Each structure stands twice: as C-alpha cells, then as structure tokens.
Amino acid sequence: MGKVNTVLGTIATEELGVTAIHEHIGFGLPGCDLDTQWWSKAEEMFETTIQKLQRFREHGGKTFVDCTGIGNGRDIPYFQVLSRKTGVNIVAVTGFVAGDSALPYFRDKSIEYLTNLFVHEITVGIDGTSAKAGAVKVGVSRGGLSELDERIYRAAARAAAKTGVPVITHLSTNAERQMELFEMEGLSIDRAIIGHADIGPDVDEERDVMIAKRGGYVGFDTIGYDAELENAPYWSCGRQERIQHFLSFLEKGYLKNAVISADANCWPLGWPGVEGHSVNYLFEEFIPDLRKAGVDEGIIEQLLVHNPANILTMRAPVFV
C-alpha cells in the first residue's frame, strides 16, 4: 500500500482522492509576513481560505498540494488548522519556488547542505513540527536557470531519490536542462512534474512531448489565469488556447503524463492576486470546458485522481 505525507500525518495513497496538485494556501515573496496591511486581515484571510477549501470539498476535492516553498508563506501550524477544519488533506513541500525568491541565508549554501535540509523536512519534520513534506519544490528564476537554481535542483534530486517523494517544478523553461540535472543526481524523470507548461509566454508543444517521452509529467497547472481577464497577469493564456493546447497533448497519447491544477492562492500574501481565481476554477470552468469538448469521465478521473496518486506516492529510496 502506497503512502503520502500530509501535514496531519502519513496517509495511504487511496485516501488522496481528487487532488489539486499545484496550489497555494498563500504565496508571497520573503518579507510578506511583515507587511502590516496583511496582519490586519488575518480573520478575513482565515474565513476566505476556509470557504475556498470547503467549496473544494463540495466539488469532490480531497487533497490540496500546497507548493509554497521555504520563506514564501509556508505555515505548517496554520495548514494543520485548515486541514482539521475542512477535512481536506494538505500536502506541504520542502524546497524553494525558485532561486530568486529564496531567502538570502540559503543563497551560498552547498548542494550537500540543501540536500540535508530537504531530507530532514521529508523524514523528520518542518519548522520544528512533526509534519513531513510530501514533495520537493524547485523552480526556474526569472531569466532562466541560475547557478543557485541548479544547486537547488541537484539537492532536490538527491533528496527525492533518497526519500521517495516527487519533485514539482515552477516553470517548464529550460526543461531539458532541468531533467538533465535530475538524472545526473540519480532521480528518474518519472518522479518529476515539469510545471506551468500552459503559461502564455512559454507554450511549446514539442517540449511537452519531449518531457512525456522521457517519462516526466507535464504540468498544465496555471489553469484559470485567462488572458480575457481584466488586469490579467503576464503569464496568462487565452482560455480556448489553453484548452486546445491541453487537448492536443492528450490526443498525442500522453494522458498518463498530464496533471492539472490552478496554481491559485486562497489568500495572496503581499500582492493583490487575481480576483475570483481559486482552485475551484478547475471544477467550475475547466472541467466543464473539457466535457464540452467531448472528454469523457474516465479521462477526467485519470487527471484528478490516478495521475496525482501515481506521482505523489512515495517510492522506495534509491541509493547511488
């Protein structure tokens, strides 16, 4: 029986159910927790987050993977309260969203130091708690993979190979180099999600196929950041363009290599976020769009249940 780490303890894979694989309770840049305009809204933040997670449960959602890295708003005791209150499994991550959003303290740390940090958070606990990370988060800095990014990628690969958890990436930019770094450090590509393949500035169907052919998962996981929105962020994509991009990937035969999510914030930290965007866009807009396009329920179940379960389930450690 497979196992997955959540903030309330390790659970059986079968308990995951419908899973949003790349989300955020709240994400901000280092220092966002010191911004007094957010302190004054703690009660509103809590109530809004509870409402969104309860709505997620009403749609059949069971597991919420919070991909907020170290220093970006990850708050394990808060996550535990939310999980108990709503009945949603919350999977926390170790690692960093990207090198350019890592706290300065970590920027000169060695691969060995970072590996040990990640392994500790996966096997012992996060921030002095007994809650263990269920995945490692890594990412590409603005402008492309930096030297720090590459150190983090190498450490993440080593930690994932040693502990059996997967790696989830921010951005699919430089995807070939990302996978090369993983393999150099002993991590099989089928243990990685190369994320945000669906952002408007970075759509590349040939790249997506290359990732899938090598066994990796392709993250269509910024769903809901639609270019049609007022004040749409720069990473937005046209709603129909995203659907066609995704359907094209499925039609090529790579259903088992696809994961979907919204990369939404229940409550953005230190930035305005995108009004109305939440994890529930998946159920209220995207899945209905797929159904209208003729996608059957078996495919939807594969995307929301089986593929997330396959990647999140801890594997036996690899010793290299």
UniProtKB/TrEMBL annotation:
N6-carboxylysine: which positions carry it? K137
Q: Where along the chain is Zn(2+) 1 bound?
A: H22, H24, K137, D263
> Quick one: which residues bind Zn(2+) 2?
K137, H170, H196
Signal peptide range: none
Is ATP-binding given among the entry's keywords?
Answer: no
Q: Does the keyword Metal-binding apply?
A: yes
Kindly state which keywords UniProt assigns to this record, in alphabetical order. Answer: Hydrolase, Metal-binding
Instruction: Identify the cofactor(s).
Output: a divalent metal cation
InterPro entries xref list: Metal_Hydrolase, Phosphotriesterase
* Entry superkingdom: Bacteria
Read off the Pfam families from this record: PTE
GO MF annotation terms? hydrolase activity; zinc ion binding
- Annotated TM spans: none
Q: How is the cofactor bound?
A: Binds 2 divalent metal cations per subunit.
PANTHER family linked to this entry? PHOSPHOTRIESTERASE-RELATED, PHOSPHOTRIESTERASE-RELATED PROTEIN
**Annotated family:** Belongs to the metallo-dependent hydrolases superfamily. Phosphotriesterase family.
Descriptive protein name: Phosphotriesterase
User: Could you tell me which species this protein originates from?
Assistant: Ureibacillus yapensis
The record lists the lineage as:
Bacteria, Bacillati, Bacillota, Bacilli, Bacillales
